[in-house]
Amino acid sequence: MISFERRMDSVEFRIHSEAHIVVDDTICRDCSVRGCITACPADLFVPTSDGGILFNYEQCFECGTCYLVCNEEGAISWNYPEGGHGVVFHSS
Amino acid sequence: MTEHTAERPSSDNDDFDAIVVGAGPAGSAAALELARAGRSVLLIERGPFPGSKNMYGGVIYGRILDTLVPQWWTEAPIQRWVTRRQTMMMTGEQALTVDYRTEAWGRPPYNGATAYRPDFDSWLADKAVEEGATLVCSTTVTGLLTDSGRVVGVSTDRPDGDVRARVVIAADGVNSFLAKEAGLYGEVDPANYTVGVKETIALPRSVIDERFAVRGDHGVDIEIIGCTGDVPGGGFLYTNSDTIAVGLVLSLPALAAGGRRPEELLAELKLHPAIAPLVEGGEVKEYSAHVIPEAGYDMMPELVGDGIVVAGDAAAMCLAAGLWLEGVNFAIGSGAAAGRACHGALRKGDTSAVGLGDYRRRLESSFVLKDHRKLREAPHLVMGELAQQKLPAMACGVAEDMFTVTNPEPKAGLMRIVRRQMRTNGVKLRSVVGDTWRALRAFG
Predict the structure, then answer these.
(1) Interface touch A65/B195, C-beta < 8 Å
(2) CATH code matching the domain that covers B16-78+115-186+301-365, chosen among 3.50.50.60, 2.40.30.10, 1.10.150.130, 3.10.180.10
(3) Which of B23, B112, B294, B443 could form a disulfide linkage to B59, CB 3.0–4.6 angstroms apart?
(4) HEC profile for B129-155?
(5) pLDDT digits (tens, 9 = 90+) for B7-41
(6) Does the structure's ipTM exceed the value 0.90?
(7) Contact B157 A83 (CB under 8 A)
(8) φ and ψ at B40, to 5 degrees?
């Protein structure tokens, strides 16, 4: 199995300086489900040792999985990146 | 949704007759039809080029293109023509495959084709541009402009980015924030969605030809069930010219609850003895992921509002019916119908929900809603325990018992084998009759 890093290196991301998705992890602290951690195909949701969630928008597929599985109102503010930015597929 | 038929007082403020949001197959088909009818159309794409945000499970069925782009197969950027279609049922170390091949699908007018979506979607968008549509890429639509409840345009992330038109076609993909903003979706249930993950793997053309026993521009599409562990879903593997693509489609709630990550499940599929020799030695060229509207007819939004229609994945037009897994053709079919219906509504000067109602009627009389309605039970059946777990185990078990020669023991006979496998897999005769009946009905 190829490493996750190597897997994500195969994808082009035109990263915008501003995050298009914002996670309010004060809400995540009370979440017992945390489906985003296993479901996000880019593995962008990482649990921290103090019970929070670390989120990085940079390698996002913009698929929508995280907000669809999130059952905590207001935890994920989800938008598309600014035009021309974000994931760019070439052979998919 | 308000129902008033009054024509908008003036169209002096309109920049275009129609705005199409999303230059995927639905949006480009809509823009193509509108432009061809002489309408001014703005086609807005948030990616740097059409298709740059899109991926899929591999096959474009081209019949719907025949009327839009005659002889499309002479110019469309196709990777391979699917002449070999397999349905594979697997367990941990078994696989039973139905393998159909025909040369007929390898010559005009063809049946299914594999293609890279960035290539294909860009090609179709160019067709709309050739007809006179204005394509603007790298522009994200941020919301709807409304005037007393009716849609009159869109706002974008460009400076002074508001654009007005008499009708907006939301072809903005599975998440369709525009259809949601217009109030056309009810509550969104994650159980209606799956996520698809895919690896495009580079292999020399000659190796692909040899491994998949095809020649020239002929290719293979394999659909797989029983390969996703406890997560309801399915797998696929298909050939491009000098890459292959292998992927999984996974139920969102089960994935979120199950603790298994998508790429782990995909790695397991690639290690399966029936798959490993096919993917061996290849380099991952691109990994991709996308959400799929899985539940078909039962999850569709209202298709029409005042000044707005919804097409393609934005309207959940993707058909995930197990035996049939189609999406691009439904997107094109719905987009083209949206384009024609909007043209008619513009001609009558009524782009209210009533005036745009012809869109739904067009879909109802075409394969788009006929197939979806006929197969409305199929997605639920395919994602159920019977199809996911018991059917692959039973089918493989019966095949193994049937073809295992037990000398000096005499043959058990087919009936005994089936009964034994039913017992082993906890399948009751009563439920077999009921489930078979249900399946026959679900598949029309």
Answers:
(1) yes
(2) 3.50.50.60
(3) B112
(4) HHCCCEEECCCCEEEEEEECCEEEEEE
(5) 444 456 799 999 999 999 999 999 999 999 999 99
(6) yes
(7) yes
(8) -85, 125
